[in-house]
């Protein structure tokens, strides 16, 4: 941000294959030469939890996003 990047963020949720719902934020960071997309979501119980962070650069979006989508479609948590 100090180098002139702009940050846009919004709340997001991910519903997993087992029905659990993860909540968090989706963000876009734009610089003069690149854009990066972040998603940070988590799931927790009283004494344990998980945090998932993904980052995809605009140049890799076409190849990486389908892999990330497949991951979310098939993920099941046992906690």
Q: Which structural class matches the secondary elements?
A: alpha+beta
Shape label: globular
Multimerization status: single chain
Uncertain stretches: none
Give the radius of gyration. 14 Å
Q: How many E strands?
A: 4
Mean pLDDT: 91
Helix content: 10-25%
Lateral arrangement of strands in the main beta sheet: 1-2-3-4
Order of helices and strands: EEEEH
Number of helices: 1
Task: Give the termini distance in whole angstroms.
Answer: 37 Å
State which percent range the strand residues make up. over 45%
Main β-sheet description: 4 strands, antiparallel
Short description:
By secondary structure, the protein is α+β, with helices and mostly antiparallel strands. It is built from one helix and four strands.
Structure, explained:
The protein is an alpha+beta fold. It contains 1 helix and 4 strands, in the order ββββα. It has one helix at residues 61-74, and strands at residues 6-15, 21-30, 35-44, 49-57. Strands 1-2-3-4 form a 4-stranded antiparallel beta sheet, covered by helices on one side. The longest helix is centred in the C-terminal third of the chain and has 14 residues, at 61-74. The protein is globular. The mean pLDDT is 91.
